[in-house]
């Protein structure tokens, strides 16, 4: 930069080029990690919503006194892939629990869980 040096001073023109490159090198990976975390968070929320819907669907089917196999199948169809479904009856109530791992980052010990409880509907004959 021979043309910029005059009297022991340097020109400011072009001297910021290295700083911009360094800032970009630091900020760009941070933005990529932030975008990936945001996408993963959205996938987790979507899996949670699927678990909520599946548990409610299963509880409604169990409350109608559908067969246990049919209730589990209906719940699995609405749940995320690989979800565990538990159907139980406690007195005049049914409880359906859906547990699933989020679709991304399977190595983390993290899972979404939802349960729904419904009262058993009475049949036309009056027996539960």
UniProtKB/TrEMBL annotation:
It comes from the Bacteria. The keyword Aminoacyl-tRNA synthetase does not apply. InterPro entries: Rv3655c/TadE, TadE-like_dom. Keywords: Membrane, Transmembrane, Transmembrane helix. The keyword Ribosomal protein does not apply. The chain crosses the membrane at residues 26-47. Residues 18-60 form the TadE-like domain. NCBIfam families: TadE_Rv3655c (NF041390). This is Membrane protein. It comes from Streptomyces mutabilis.
